Amino acid sequence: MKQEDLSVSKYFSEARDFIEKGILDFLPDADGYPESIHKSMRYSVLAGGKRLRPILVVAAAEAVGGDRRSILPFAVAVEFVHTYTLIHDDLPALDNDDLRRGKLTNHKIFGESVAILAGDALLTRAFYLMTHGALMDSIPAGQLLRAAHEMSDALGTAGMIGGQVVDLESEGKPIDPETLEYIHIYKTGFLIRACIRCGAILSQADPVQFAALSRFGAHIGLAFQIVDDILDIVGDQGKLGKDIGSDIDKEKATYPALYGLEESRRKSEQLIEEGIASLEIFDQRADPLREIARFFVQRTY
Amino acid sequence: MKQEDLSVSKYFSEARDFIEKGILDFLPDADGYPESIHKSMRYSVLAGGKRLRPILVVAAAEAVGGDRRSILPFAVAVEFVHTYTLIHDDLPALDNDDLRRGKLTNHKIFGESVAILAGDALLTRAFYLMTHGALMDSIPAGQLLRAAHEMSDALGTAGMIGGQVVDLESEGKPIDPETLEYIHIYKTGFLIRACIRCGAILSQADPVQFAALSRFGAHIGLAFQIVDDILDIVGDQGKLGKDIGSDIDKEKATYPALYGLEESRRKSEQLIEEGIASLEIFDQRADPLREIARFFVQRTY
Fold this sequence. Notes:
mainly alpha, 1% strand
């Protein structure tokens, strides 16, 4: 099966429904005081993401025999983290984007001040969920701490924020291959890898399983951003829900700009194959991870 | 002793030195890649704060017999949290302040994009520290999770961010006493109370001690913001390191504006007395908390 559209996958659509219900449970109510911030948070979280990151947490946990119900607050937390990064990235001072997922960006609707605070609030709520008492019913507190620590490490300046800073500072300048790879791995890859590592930690993966899943996560994380670059050139604006060609307009550093489209495609496919190969110690319980990995490189949105 | 200047207090100056060393240990190096974000984080953290919040964590922990060395990463984390709130608060889209602690605000030096990311990075690093493995040497993981959860709760939309939003939305409008109290308790009081509650949690306070410390924290937290309002009118710009009268310029909701200076002073003193009274079950190990509480209302900076 070609994984252009994950919604045809039974695993994916069930996992997505599971996450959507969790998101609704863990978002603040729209009419909770003060309403503006809650409306702003809900607007961006409910704008129709693919929920790939929480599904990766679930799929990684299940690959080592974990139970998705016991980790739901943590899985929802990573979607809140992802949404926080999008809201802040879109701000006028950063990427200055008007459209996201086919809708106006958060600050275009709610204003810059509320958008900044909504991003802050989603990051804060993510840690609130990662340390939620309900998780302790089935996961040892030490493992929970380790997972929250792993996630905060991946999100910091030795992770995602480091990538964002270098990305911003590289706009409009010639870029060398090492800096480009740094940006892609740090800006995008680290969060994807952290989702998989946290799923593994929460299900108490042994060290061999953990190392294999880490390797898988690092490979598909980089591939994901390379495909993002490709779709910014050849993608369908309607499917993607954002402006095509915006990387070129902003003189962003991309794989196609440095290596060309064909070589970028080849590189992303190779990364996915190597990532899947690192799952060889796992049985069919890792099939959803393999399926999502193939989607990463064959996706059109 | 009149507590106008805590630097004459042996406890306070020793605790402050202890925290300063911890801050230097847990800040990213200035020359770590990417440098701009690390320089920006260090600039604001090292701009000379009073370190009241981490000292409150330490003093609360010690009031119930805890050891400051075992909670250092957590205490440093709350100073990072505090600094993140200042950097984001000062942004053009929020309070648009040029001066903080007598120096240019973060975005005036590093630009808006880096300032937004530096705030994000400090909040992220705070959770990195709150879940730091070194804490587990002497504190049960369940207590650590509870403390990190408590802090994230106090920082969210049912806490500090809620207060910031209502504060922003109340500028230039008539305000009722209930909304003013909401802003002060949520915007400022919740973090101060959370510092004390987290210190208590980390030292495994019993429920009676925890309730007393919570009550103490709620009282001094509100008093702190009322005194902030008063100092914005009668304070010494040189000592405060920020513009005097900025609340009036921004038509901010303040206690003196609603109740007058004298009634605001009386209210803050009453809150401090009630707060200190709630510590009656504690022995002299709570004296630093009592001393800091008196400073809260007698401070001139």
